[in-house]
Design goal:
Blueprint: E1 9-10, H1 14-22, E2 31-34, E3 43-48, E4 54-57, H2 71-74, E5 90-92, E6 99-101, H3 104-122, E7 127-131, H4 137-151, E8 156-158, H5 165-175, E9 193-197, H6 201-204, H7 209-217, E10 221-225, E11 238-240, H8 247-260, H9 266-272, E12 273-274, H10 276-284, H11 288-295, H12 299-311, E13 315-319, H13 321-324, H14 329-342, E14 352-355, H15 362-365, E15 374-375, E16 379-380, H16 384-394, H17 408-413, E17 421-425, H18 429-432, H19 436-444, E18 448-453, E19 465-468, E20 477-480, E21 485-489, E22 493-494, H20 502-512, H21 523-534, H22 546-550, E23 557-558, H23 569-574, E24 591-592, E25 611-616, H24 632-637, E26 643-645, H25 647-653, E27 660-664, E28 669-676, E29 684-688, E30 702-705, E31 712-713, E32 717-723
Helix pairs in contact: 3-20, 4-20, 4-21, 5-14, 8-10, 8-11, 8-12, 8-14, 16-21
Length: about 725
Amino acid sequence: MHSTATSVTPATSSAAATSTATSTAAPAGVTATHCPYCALQCGMGLTTGPGGDVEVVERAGFPVNKGALCGKGRTAPAVLSSRVRLTEPLVRSHATGRLTPATWEEALDRIADGLSRTRSEHGADACGVFGGGGLTNEKAYALGKFARVALGTSQIDYNGRFCMSSAAAAGQRAFGLDRGLPFPLEDIPRTGCVILVGSNLAETMPPALRYLTELRENGGTLIVVDPRRTRTAEQADLHLAPRPGTDLALALGLLHLIVAEGRTDDAYIEERTSGWEETRAAAMAHWPEHVERITGVAVPQLRDAVRLFCGADAAMVLTARGPEQQSKGTDTVGAWINLCLATGRAGRPLSGYGCLTGQGNGQGGREHGQKADQLPGYRKLTDPAARAHVAGVWGVDPDSLPGPGRSAYELLDALGGDIKSLLLMGSNPVVSAPRAAHVEERLRSLDFLAVADVVLSETARLADVVLPVTQWAEETGTVTNLEGRVLLRQRAVSAPGGVRSDLDVLHGLAARLGHAKGFPTEPEEVFEELRRASAGGPADYSGISYERLREDDGEGVFWPCPAEAEGNDDRARRGTPRLFLERFATEDGRARFVPVVHRDTAEEPDAEYPVLLTTGRVLAQYQSGAQTRRVDELNSAAPGPFVELHPRLAARLGVEEDDPVAVVSRRGRAVAPARVTSAIRADTVFMPFHWPGEGRANTLTHPALDPVSRMPEFKVCAVRVERL
């Protein structure tokens, strides 16, 4: 059993006691909950040891991780400590310009005054709201409602736009519905072949690596597509290492070979899809030798991939940020979906396309209203029926709801211009946004910035008001993991006295803005309203309740789960674990092929910037590192940024291991020690994006946006490397 400890006060309220008592997922004295980090939402237990320290204990019965936790999960309670987190509101002194402690009333008054002044002087859309993929469903729902009802602004989006929005857009186009995985993780080891595109599960989601290990133990094969030979690629039967930004051409080349070799499932195409002929014609323009020249993947490897994928009785394609965080990410994911459809591998048992969602509640966060174009239940903001339904739940006139606003990067880029004030919750764009130095400059140009966070992040340091809010173990709420499994996190400890929940924050601000009712502070009350608002929508949670989420050892319920499923055998217990087995979520029930063609990245290398940069995560850190960088054990494992480069490139530059190098793009410069390795392509360098300061990788990245998903091009840009 792994454990870690930190000094926090155990919860003594009746609500906390009830949560522990009613959970059947853990023994007495242990609160069943979930890890606060990635979208696996691994099950864990929390208990208090001698002296009141919080300890993490295994929760072997939870099916996703079966007790296994990575280092981030094991050390998660360390950030609960008052030594590393915010414990009182801070306001910027008019006299000194410094952040100084304040009362909650003073802090909330300052925020309400700032937002009200902006509204009265510049209009409601001059107020922006920026959320996070780590917020619970209840908080994401309340934040979207607050923006549209209390502020009346259309300018709301969240950092989940930077996560898997391209996969979501491609899934909507092809299947009529986006749910990260349309099947549970437990299906992966039972399929015959998996193509894993742009994911390093061994470092980003370590407990999930066992599914790929079991796949191979069961006789299945694993194909990994990644420009680096990562720890995950080391597990593969076949590793394809394309030039960054060419995943689209790779998928088209594979589809060309599938057609040329007569491996399409013609009966399936006829019965369950539409749009094949146009897609077929587009793929045939990408013959193998042409694709080899674009991607650098040899034709024999392309043929091996087709043989392995088509030779299995069942197969899956799983994508992550690699192909998605591109200015053509939607088309790239669409090309991999086309591969599944052409071979009859979608909407069948143990087969299909799935997206490995990244952030803890990246799935639920985009379903319930903090995305610029959506209302709760994954409803479209432009749909009159959707507006009428949600407005009815909220008790407002549908015409009073604003229309769609700007996407995440476009919203950040407009700060200080059209948008004068910003309320930001659970995000750190100073480190995580593309063209980060420019975004930092935009944040500094605001008339007013308020940040609610658990730590004093790089973004919070710029704010006029900083609010200290509760963390995962200090509050109850639901999250939706990458499988579409709705889970209940249960409060285990009490927050420090000066800390309040995000729901309390929104309640207090709404009251000051003239909306004394409609913003409850109890998570279960918010969830009950969310159920009604989602009813009948694509992401229907109306049949899910806190009571049901506590049943069956807290395994969760898969959406969609409409209210009529209550009491109906397995669907009442589990919801819908597997989508599309009978029909797709389109009007005619057919999946749609979407013809796509390869195009260059927004910024190709040239004489001045001859090398490609790609970015990603490392095992010991998470996202912008705002929390994990405060954990000593994790910092020891990953002490800082680095630049990974091939020995040939290093020799050409005269660089040796640990030498400081500068990576320079048209947008900025980052400096970090060199790591020389043959595990990366000679035309590519890699940097992790967890650190601020001179090693801030996102200073370099390109803000070019996908025309459909509005995803920035994090994964590829042109740079030069300089020896210092």
